[in-house]
Amino acid sequence: MFNLVENAIRYSRTGSTVNVSIRDNDSHVFLRVEDQGPGIPKQYRESIFQPFFRLDKSRSRAYGGAGLGLALVWEIAALHGGAVEVETSSENGTTMLVTLSKGATT
Fold first, then answer.
1. What are φ and ψ of residue 46, in 5° steps?
2. Does the predicted TM-score (pTM) go above 0.70?
3. With CB atoms 3.0 to 4.6 Å apart as the test, which of 2, 24, 95, 105 could cross-link to 34 if both were Cys?
4. From CA 63, how far away is CA 5, in angstroms rounded?
């Protein structure tokens, strides 16, 4: 969760809001992180979860990091029987969704 929130803050516009919400139903827990950043183009929405992938190579030094944060989120969610995805994204922001099964064990 830290990596998702950190990315949302890092890539959001100055003075914007980052929202974090957690909801559940009988079988799953849903964690959403919504930002007001520039969005993620459709063609990269799966690639961003690959280790060392950078959406914009020119910004890597300015924003820091090694390109591992979302890959770690993906792997940790999978290890807990869950998944992470770009739920929505546009020029007005991105919503990341982590879905975890309540019945999963580690």
1. -95, -35
2. yes
3. 95
4. 14
